Amino acid sequence: DVERRVVATLLTLMDGLDNKDTTSDDQRIIVIGATNRPNAIDQALRRPGIPNVDQRKDILIQLSKNIPSLLKEDDYRYIAERSHGYVGADLHALIREASFLAMERNQDSLCLTDFLKGMSHIKPSAMREIFLEVPKVKWEDIGGYDDVKKRLKEAVEWPLRYPESFKRIGVKPPKGILLYGPSGCSKTLMAKAVATEANLNFLAIKGPEIFNKYVGESEKAIRDIFAKARAAAPAIIFLDEFDAVAAKRDDSDSTDVSDRVVISFLNEMDGVESLENVTILAATNRPDRIDPAVLRPGRIDRMIYVGLPDFDARRKIFQLQFDKLSISSDVNIEDLVNMTAGYSGAEVVAICQHAGLNALQENINIEAVIYS
User: Fold this and answer.
1) Which of 6, 38, 305, 345 is most exposed by smallest CB count within 10 Å?
2) Model-level pTM?
3) Cα separations (Å) of 292 from 237, 246, 288, 316?
4) Neighbouring C-beta atoms of residue 178, cutoff 10 Å
5) Computed from CA positions of residues 246, 344, 202, 215, in that sequence, does the dihedral angle turn out positive or negative?
6) Which residues lie across from 239 on neighbouring strands?
7) DSSP result, 286-299
8) Residues 78-93: tens digit of each pLDDT
9) Coil, strand or helix at 285
10) What fold, for 311-362?
11) Boundaries of CATH 3.40.50.300 in the chain?
């Protein structure tokens, strides 16, 4: 296990060399290794690194040169900017998938739409082991919470969209963000939406899933999550039920395993500083159980409260549900909003679903949900 950790660390550091600060003529760093047993070297060290945007664009153009295509150079760059974490084999698979989609349309030439649809089927190699298929949730799919959405955009989207502005002012984007508040208030949906809108790879883990009965496996799970995120950056690591991962170490309920997991998490968080475009987004309804060391500046240092929806938010949530259901004209949305003060967003959605089920139970041929 020690050897694997050393290899993982070396891979991470070598991938970090491929940036503007270390590839100029006067600052270029070359790693030279010597051995008489080349076959004993880990295969990952002998592979080319993950290509950047410009390299992905060049690979796409090279692989597509003998394939009829309607794409221009700007289209290839557009695809490259959205194929974070893709290696050459992934891009080759993407072109093959796009070709199949063009054939289904009875077209001889590939178009941009074929590539964009193909990307929903071809995942980055670095993400396949723990990649979670995320529904395409957009901001407009979440009713209300305009202030929360604004703060998430500023913390996650702005550093990617305006990197020169952050560099010019000398401001570092937050490494980690904690969404906290009652259950059922769209914290997970918020995380999915920010990943979708910002075109980020998304790794979602539930806190309790990290723990393993075998010694050292829980800490390894933490290291693996961060290694995958580094390889597929820009990415979001979403940790649900975060209080299970980062429980207070002086709490009477804490165990040796949970303490080691917290230490591993802190070590990885501190290591993210030299990396770019990896954001930790955590969610909990018990922030009081989280170890204070995790919430210090430079770690999870941005806290956003996601409370129960107010009147306007509940109206928007009801309206989103009404758009999906067949609702009778006698149903007054304002009455429902007034009757559900103190309800969570999940409970509002459940009311609409139960109303639809009740209508079907009364009459399987009913055409619309009525007020009663």
Assistant:
1) 38
2) 0.66
3) 20, 9, 9, 36
4) 24
5) positive
6) 205, 282
7) -GGGB-GGGGSTTS
8) 898 888 778 888 899 9
9) coil
10) Helicase, Ruva Protein; domain 3 (1.10.8)
11) 132-305
